[in-house]
Amino acid sequence: MHYHCLIQRATQPSNAFKDKCPVCHIQLFEWDGINALTLATRTGLELQDEKPGGYLDPNTGNWVPSDKTEYEADCAFLVTLVSRHLEAHSNQPSGFEDGSVDLARVYYDVCRDLDRMKKPQARWLQYRTRTGVFLLGMLVAIKMRRFLMEERPGVVGTEGWMEFEEEGRRAQERVLGEVHGP
């Protein structure tokens, strides 16, 4: 099976066999939304909502808002958490010589809150596997980095920023280690 075809199959939310062999239907992997989103993005595939505005869940009979709407809401919530934690840490004494905010601590607090709140809710950000957890951590780091560069450019280059960047590199190494193995 072509790689592109496999990824397209795995990223179709309505495909009941997305995680199974197309020939014998044996389960090949545990489907995680964030893994599918990452693979689709890397492969250049467009992710489609089930129906514009949402879809009817066949298991529950409930109307579910569109994937894009859920994804955007979860990303906005994530940025709100970053902002809240950044403000809280800005009012605490700094452990850095330059007095900068401990951005790595902000990152870990955001990740902890997401887990505690059972977020995100969007199908494309859901996770059940260890790789999914690591990918969500990378998404948090990317969103936080973008927020800081756009909204708080003064933190770029500080000791707190350098430590945060190092944590981002470690998160990336965890993802790569998970994907490629030891």
Overview in brief:
The protein is mainly alpha-helical and 182 residues long. The chain is built from 6 helices and 2 strands, in the order ααββαααα.
Write the topology of this structure.
Elements lengths: L2 H8 L22 H11 L10 E3 L6 E3 L1 H24 L12 H14 L13 H22 L7 H22 L2
Antiparallel strand pairs: 1-2
Helix pairs in contact: 1-2, 2-5, 3-4, 3-5, 4-6, 5-6
Q: Features of this protein?
A:
single chain, 182 residues, mainly alpha, two-stranded antiparallel sheet, 3% strand, elongated
Please describe what this structure looks like.
With 182 residues, this protein is mainly α. The chain has two domains: 31 residues, no CATH class; 116 residues, no CATH class. Helices cover 55% and strands 3% of the residues. The chain contains six helices and two strands. β1 and β2 form a beta hairpin. α3 crosses α5 and α5 runs antiparallel to α6. The longest helix is centred in the middle third of the chain and has 24 residues. The radius of gyration is 19 Å and the shape is elongated.
Give me the strand/helix succession. Answer: HHEEHHHH
Rg over C-alpha atoms, rounded to the nearest angstrom: 19 Å
- Unreliable runs, pLDDT <50, ≥5 residues? none
- Could you describe the largest sheet, including whether it forms a barrel? 2 strands, antiparallel
Category from helices, strands and their pairing = mainly alpha
Residue share in helices? 55-70%
| N- to C-terminal distance | 26 Å
